Every structure is written in C-alpha cells, then in structure tokens.
C-alpha cells in the first residue's frame, strides 16, 4: 500500500443541526448525528460554523446569540434558539460539547468563523444582526447609497467594511473569546464566506488592514499558548489564487511569508482545476505552514468519481491535505471510502475518476450569495459560445486536461455536452494536435443531463439538455500530464438563430 502519512483531512459543518433538528438537542444528538459519522474515517479535524452575519449559534458571552431581542420568530429560528439553549443547559453549549466529543474520539476541533457573510437578509430579521443594523455606517455600501442591480457593488453592499476599526475590532473580540474561553485546537477564519471586505476600488490599498488583523489574531493565539500550554493553530480560507486574494484585500502571500498563519485552505472548491494550489505550496516552502485543497459538494464535486479526481489533482500539486465543505450529511461509509483515497495513493490510483472542467455557470451577480464569489473567483473557459470558422483557419480553444494519475488500462471517454448543437452542425476536434477520427466519436442526439446548481433556494437539481453530446473514445489521444483539446465549428445549421454553446467537458477515466 502506497500510504501518504501526515495528511490533514478537514471537514466543515455549517451548523445545520440547530435549525434542522426538533428541540431539544443534547450531547448525545451531537455525537450520533455529527461526530459518529466520522468514526474510523481518518478525519483529522472537524470544523463547526459558529454562525454568520454577526449572529452566533454558540454559548458566546460577548456576541449576539440567535434570537436575542426578537419576538414572533419564524419556525427555523425558533428551533435554533431552543436548541442552542438546550445545549447550553445540558452540556455548556455546542462549542463546549463538540470539542469534548471530538477529543474523546481523537479528532481535533476548530470553530469556523465566517468573516463577512453577504446573504440577502431582511434588515429586521433576527439573522441580520444587531451590529450591522445599528451601524450601517460600517457597511461596504454607504447609508442611502444605490447601486445598479446585477453589479458586484450591489451584491456586496450589506457586508462589513473592514476599512473601519470597529468592524475589525468586533471580529477580533469574537475570535479572542473562541480561543481563550474554549478547549479548541485551532480556529478557522473563513475569508471565503464571503470573499468581499472593502469597497471594490479600495480593496487592494487596504490589504494591510486585514494583514494587521491576522497578525493580531496570531499574537492572541500565541499568548493563549504561552499561558495555557495548549497547542492552537490558525487556519485561513482564502480565494483560489494568490493574485485574486490580494486584489480583494487579503495579502495571503504576506501572511505566509511572516508566518502569521499555520494552515492555508485554498479556495471554495468551485473551480478546482483553475486553482493553482501549487503557487500556495511554493509560497509556504521552508515554513511549517500546511496548504489544503478544497472541495465543494454543491458543484462540481457531486459524485465520488469527481471527488476522487479533484483529490488526486490537489495531492499531485503538493497539497498537505484536503478540506471538505458541505459534505457533513454524507454517511460514514461514504467518508471512509473517499477519505481512503487521500491516505492510500495506490487505492486512489485505481479508482475511477471524472475530470470535469470548471464552469462559470454557478457564478452570477443576481444573488448576494453568489456576487462575492463572482468577484473573487478567477474566470474559467466554460461555457463557450462557438462561432463558425468561415475562413477555414483553426481558431483553437485550448483546454488543458491535466491527468496526474497514470492513465488506466481500461477505456476512458471524453464527453462534450452542447446546447443548440443540431444535426447540420459539424465540429472538427483535435487532441494534442491529432485529429480525432470520426470512428472514435459518437454523437448522441438523445440529450444529456447533469446535477447542476440552480439557485440558493432550489439548490442542486438534475438538469436535462435536449441537445447533442459528443463522446470520444480512447485511441491513444491522451498522455499523462498536460493535454490540449481544440475545437473548430466547421459548419453551422442554416437559419438557426441560437449559437452552439459548449456547456460541459468531462473526462471519465
């Protein structure tokens, strides 16, 4: 067995249990519904989101607990309030209880603090937060300021503006309480929920302010370590590239250089193949800082084959571990199987994989939840509108197919999913400058489908596309390493008004 030692496996739980469970919750519920699902899986660290929008779901003495000062609560909030109180009464609270349970089974426990949520929440809702309601002058959008709907500025306007001392001081006070008053092994500052902290035109010039905050957090942790003897780590989750992180005001390169952090979690897992995790690994070289690659369940990593392929890529690029987001509902058997692919290289090598190219389809500016992602995440190539090549020149579209495992002996299939591709349309396809023989292609006009993120309310849905899918079979076209796929639309159906769009590219190994 080719087993990789020293790897970290992090799993982030978003706090679902408080609002999805009928009260009263107890310590036994926390164990059976959460901690027990990680038994014997190899998980190293369990992270639990303590709330968001400066409204907290834990036994805080300084922050605003969910429901405080509100009457006529909706059913979901009533559950959160009742379950938080029942846990405080029975075991001290969710942070106290979860840290105890995790330590009993040999798992490290980190509270996860969302640094700046940008959900579209009514200002009078108990989930909006007293801090923002009472201090609108501390928000990215100024009081009375209007932005055009569908812009980044509109999408991030209700978030905290970290240019203000009061905003940074508030977050530091919550962080300090979490590391000082609870038996935690570390804390995650989640800068990816959501990644916007300043006005767009001021973000880069204000990056030093967040650096100072991270430095102060590290000093606070060091003080606690010195006074208590506990070993506490500082983890940060940041956008997918160093350049994009710095652009929005997060100078993660400086944090690494000065060793203000212990763990860097790279990206949201939404564009894993466009994430140059090796850049972060190189930046952390000759330090003790670990770099973790991210996976996101709500797209694209929705199947075991896709998850395995992304894990394989992260590890091949030098990642020191894997971070799972939105996988908390998965069964114990699923976690055992998937986590084994992290530790056991031989097992991973022989597992079937689906390499699915990154897509921009999830990232729109129509929702506040998505606008910060669109702001912080790098552009990717798909979807692409294909124009007919009237000059008979090879106008190439390049897709790097980065195969990091050895190519398996069994056949692979490259599947191209199109919209508006009809019977008279004709493509010429090259892989590594070799024309794909027509005998190696199957054009299926029965339609194709995929699990796809729709919107925040409707979540993942199976979407059926009544257009062609081209399936290319193995005939020596691919090699290990970087491969290039090139397409040319030779002929387009006459009288057709809608353009051919390449919606999906996936390689099934």
What is the CATH homology-level superfamily of the largest domain? Glycosidases
Number of strands: 23
Classified by CATH, the class of the largest domain is Alpha Beta
Residue share in helices? 25-40%
The domain tally reads 2
Distance between the ends: 21 Å
Proportion of strand residues = 15-25%
What topology, given as strand order, has the largest sheet? 1-2-6-7-8-9-10-11
| Biggest β-sheet description | 8 strands, parallel, barrel
> What coarse outline follows from CA principal-axis ratios?
globular
Q: Give the mean pLDDT.
A: 92
Low-confidence stretches: 392-396
CATH topology label of the largest domain: TIM Barrel
Q: Radius of gyration in whole Å, from Cα?
A: 24 Å
Q: How many distinct helices?
A: 15
């Amino acid at each position: 067995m080719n087993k990789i030692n020293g790897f970290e496996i992090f799993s982030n739980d978003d706090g679902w249990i408080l609002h999805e469970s009928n009260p009263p919750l107890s310590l036994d519920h926390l164990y059976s519904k959460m901690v027990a699902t990680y038994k014997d899986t190899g998980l190293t660290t369990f992270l639990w989101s303590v709330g968001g929008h400066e409204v907290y779901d834990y036994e805080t003495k300084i922050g605003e607990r969910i429901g405080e000062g509100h009457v006529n609560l909706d059913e979901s909030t009533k559950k959160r309030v009742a379950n938080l109180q029942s846990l405080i009464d029975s075991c001290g609270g969710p942070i106290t209880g979860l840290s105890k349970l995790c330590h009993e089974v040999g798992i490290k426990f980190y509270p996860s603090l969302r640094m700046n949520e940008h959900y579209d929440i009514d200002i009078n809702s108990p989930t909006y937060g007293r801090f923002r309601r009472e201090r609108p002058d501390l928000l990215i959008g100024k009081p009375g300021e209007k932005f055009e709907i569908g812009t980044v500025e509109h999408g991030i306007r209700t978030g905290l503006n970290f240019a203000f001392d009061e905003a940074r001081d508030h977050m530091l006070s919550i962080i300090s309480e979490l590391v000082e008053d609870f038996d935690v092994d570390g804390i995650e500052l989640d800068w990816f929920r959501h990644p916007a902290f300043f006005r767009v035109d001021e973000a880069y010039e204000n990056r030093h302010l967040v650096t100072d905050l991270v430095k102060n957090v590290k000093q606070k942790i060091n003080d606690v370590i010195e006074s208590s003897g506990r070993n506490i780590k500082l983890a940060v989750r940041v956008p997918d590239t160093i350049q994009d992180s710095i652009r929005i005001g997060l100078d993660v390169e400086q944090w690494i250089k000065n060793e203000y952090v212990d763990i860097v979690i790279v990206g949201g897992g939404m564009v894993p193949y466009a994430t140059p995790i090796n850049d972060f690994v190189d930046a952390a070289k000759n330090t003790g800082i670990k770099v973790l690659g991210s996976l996101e369940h709500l797209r694209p990593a929705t199947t075991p084959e896709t998850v395995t392929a992304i894990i394989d890529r992260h590890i091949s690029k030098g990642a020191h571990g894997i971070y799972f987001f939105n996988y908390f509902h998965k069964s114990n058997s699923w976690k055992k199987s998937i986590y084994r692919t992290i530790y056991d290289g031989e097992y991973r090598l022989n597992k079937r994989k689906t390499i699915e190219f990154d897509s921009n389809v999830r990232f729109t500016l129509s929702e506040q939840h998505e606008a910060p992602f669109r702001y912080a995440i790098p552009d990717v190539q798909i979807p692409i509108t294909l124009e007919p090549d009237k000059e008979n020149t090879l106008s190439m579209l390049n897709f790097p197919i980065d195969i990091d495992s050895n190519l398996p002996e069994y056949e692979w299939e490259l599947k191209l999913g199109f919209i508006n591709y009809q019977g008279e349309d004709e493509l010429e396809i090259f892989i590594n400058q070799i024309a794909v023989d027509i005998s190696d292609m199957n054009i299926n006009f029965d339609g194709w489908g995929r699990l796809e993120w729709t919107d925040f309310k409707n979540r993942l849905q199976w979407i059926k596309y009544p257009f062609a899918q081209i399936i290319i079979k193995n005939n020596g076209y691919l090699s290990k390493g970087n491969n290039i796929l090139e397409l040319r639309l030779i002929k387009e159906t006459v009288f057709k008004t809608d353009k051919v769009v390449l919606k999906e590219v996936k390689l099934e190994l």
